[in-house]
Structures are given as structure tokens and as C-alpha cells.
């Protein structure tokens, strides 16, 4: 992977008359991991959505490899994976079908890759079940399998460890560790801190 | 990356599944899916989902069948009079029937975060919206077109006119689906969007209704219906070029 950097410069965002993001700035180079902390309603999710361009900040800019991301949204989007706090899964499709369609829209996917990713998150025994019959933790694991299949340079994760057991949280740490080891960047909104396996992380506190 | 696997609990050790492979190695080479592959997958996903939830699929068809079958009972069994009303009945039924399924076009996708993933996929959202609209047409417009000749028969239309009716409804419903996709995308943020959705899309659908009914009328009279059919085709082309763009823009706004 070539050199990757993300630079956030003085981001301000209002929701109605509420000033949610008040001048957020940071810079991450490849292999960098940022933990975004803050109380409920501090704007962690809003920050992630502003970074990936889903919401428009009133002020400030996001630079990807030195270029304003607004210039070329599609190629910035191709370089990032965003995992919201709800796994983006269809209740009426099986776990495997969900990954096939969700990841397949982004990159060619082979059956064996899917098998490996599903086994990795411990889903190989229940991946043929409809997602509506899965528990919240299992759904989160399917979403993690999707993340593992998207080795793009930038990961934006919103509460990646929600609903997961201890083993699942370690898996999140492992995935993040691998992403950093191959030169990726991870920005994660978290409540209790990232699992130890993630390695060294920088912390950004958002005031409520 | 081996040092990493040594110091964490091994969730994989207990599994009888394939040997764990380093994600970095399986993921290379990093290529992006082509736009065509993405469109195909979005289309297939929607079709598969629709066949898992058949009630939504049947609803517009049942509505259309009921409307067109009730008319002869309510008006008169006199075939000449029914034949005169047939174009209007078929088209109003098709228009309202196609409206019924519209509300669901983007709602589930917005709810479960699928639209967000589409918007962030690096693929053209316009192309993906086109795929979704195409799925909607295949699931409502095309079945309505296939049913229209049956409905027409119950209204006393001669058999010679049936291919023309099928063709007119098939072409017209493309435009109805496309206009509907804009309306459905614009009303995404609204809880009970049904009333507003019809208010938005019905005025825009009027040209389709007018030319569609005219084509049907001419077909029943045994005259050439080429002119109104060509106008329906022109409307469909106009819709194809503009509606996915507008729907994509509306979806982006709704995600904010």
C-alpha cells in the first residue's frame, strides 16, 4: 500500500442549533489508530459520518492523502470501509448471502474467501441461517467478517465491540491489529476502549 | 503477523472449519468490482429478497385484479360500454397498483443501513439506484403488464387488441417505476410517507396515463397505436436518463 494519510482540519458541525463538532482536528498516517471517546451524544457517530462524507460539516475539511475528499468522493469511498452501529444486514437473507451481496458490490469475491472470513468469526456453523434468527452478537460477527473482506486503507468503525463476548472483542482487536500492520488506518468510536490486541492507539476525546 | 496470533486467545483453534488464512493474503489483489457487477448484485439481491417476502409482491397484482374485475360488476355487463371504459380502468388500476409497492422500494434499505453502504461503496449511486428501480419494475411493472390483457378480457376487449395493451402497459410502467423511485427517495425521511408519495408521483405520472390510455384505446379500436406508444417510449427514455440521478441525489440527502 502506498503512503496513506488522513488529515482532519477544524471540523465544525451543527445539528439544528446544537454545536456537535467544535473544531475537531487530527492527523493520522498509515498504521495509525484513533480511538474516538466521549459520552453518549458527544458526537462520535456524527464525526465518523462527517469523515466519510455522509453528513456535510459546516466548516473545516477532510484531507485524504493531501487531497480534499470533496473533490473525488467515489475514489475516497472506494478507499474506506464504514461500519455503523447497526450491522448493515438484511433480515431475510442468510449470513452468507448478506456478505455475498454487500461485499460483492465493492469487490469481486470468491467463495473460498467468504468461507475463510465466516470461519474466522466463528460463523461457519450458522452462516446458512437467516439473519433474523441470529442474535445481536452473531450479527455483529457477520459484520466483522464483512470488514475482514474489505482490506481498504481506511476503516471507520462505530462501536465495533457492541454486543460481542470476550472472544469476539478480541477478534475485533486482532482485525484492527492486522489492518494497522498492513499499513491501514483505523478510526473507531468506542465506549470502553479498544481491545488490547489492537496495539497502540491515539485517543481523541469529544466533549459532550 | 505471526507474533499477533501468538498472544491472543485462539478462537479458531476450536473450529473444525478451514485452516485460518491471513486476511492480508487472501484479500490481495485489491480490485474493485465493476459497475456492471455491482448493478447485477443489487438487482439480484432485491429479487431474492422479494421472493422471500411474497406478500409484498402479490399486493399490487391483487389490487389491480380486483379493481378491473369489480368494474364490470359495478357498471353493466354490456360489453360495448365496458370496452369504452377499458383503457381508463386498466391504466388507473395499473397506476395505483404500481404506487402500492413504491413505499417499500427504499424503506428497508434505509432502515438497515444498506443504503448507507451503497452510498459509501465507491460505486456510482446512480447506477445502484437504477438497479433498484429495475428490480422494482421487474417485480411490479412487468407482472402488471402481463396481467393487463387478462383484465382487458374481463372488460370485453377483443383478443386482437391484447398484445397492444401488454406492450403499452409494459413500456408505460417503466416510466411509472422511474418516477416512483424519485418520490420514494424523496420521502425516505418521513414516517408514514404513503399519502405524500402519491401526491408527489401522481402529477408526474399523468403523461403516462394519458398516452397509455390513448394507446390502449386505439388498440381496442383496431387502429394503429404507434404514435402514443412512441411517446410512452420517449417518456421512458427521458426517465431512464434522469430519474436514477435524481433518486441518488435524494437518497444522499436522506442519509444526512
Notes on the protein architecture:
The complex is a heterodimer of chains A (208) and B (256). Chain A is built from six helices and nine strands. Chain A is α/β, with parallel strands linked by helices. Chain A has a five-stranded parallel beta sheet, with helices on both faces. In chain A, helix 3 (95-104) packs parallel to helix 5 and helix 4 packs across helix 5. Chain B is mainly α and 256 residues long. Chain B has one domain. Chain B is 78% helix and 0% strand. Chain B has eleven helices and no strands. In chain B, helix 5 (79-102) packs parallel to helix 9 and helix 10 packs antiparallel against helix 11 (226-255). The model of chain B is unreliable at 1-29 (pLDDT under 50).
Tell me about the largest β-sheet of chain A. 5 strands, parallel
State the low-pLDDT regions of chain B, or none. 1-29
Q: Quickly count the helices of chain A.
A: 6
Count the strands of chain B?
0
Strand order of the largest sheet of chain A: 6-7-8-3-9
Helicity level of chain A:
25-40%
Q: What is the N-to-C order of secondary-structure elements of chain B (H for helix, E for strand)?
A: HHHHHHHHHHH
Classify the secondary structure makeup of chain A into a structural class: alpha/beta
Tell me about the largest β-sheet of chain B.
none
Average pLDDT confidence of chain B is 87
Order of helices and strands of chain A: EEEHEEHEHHHEHEE
Using DSSP, what is the number of strands of chain A? Answer: 9
Distance between the termini of chain B: 39 Å
Q: Mean pLDDT of chain A, as a whole number?
A: 91
Overall tally of structural domains of chain B: 1
